[in-house]
Amino acid sequence: MPADLAATLLQANPADLPALLGLDRASRTRRRNAALGRAAELLSGDGCGAWITAGRLAAAIERFERALWPALLGGARLELSEIEQALYEAFLTGATPVTCQRRLFELLRAD
Fold this sequence. Notes:
By secondary structure, this protein is mainly α. It contains six helices and no strands.
């Protein structure tokens, strides 16, 4: 990545990143879904089914959105777990967050 682009992205408001990266709505949705899929894989390490994983993912998203996302938007530099990093990437896409267990279940089964 060119140094000037990296500097611009690091200094940008996280909400502006999708536009800076030139992502259209479909691209943002695909990237969000891929990031949510990575988080789901990490949450299903014990071999639980898609419904249980979707519930765990919904709870993780709720915690992330309530506790970490506001701090990250405010510029805080936090050490994130792998799951939190995947959720951060999902939120950075600018695509509407999926928070409902049923919708997450459908997303996970579609993969």
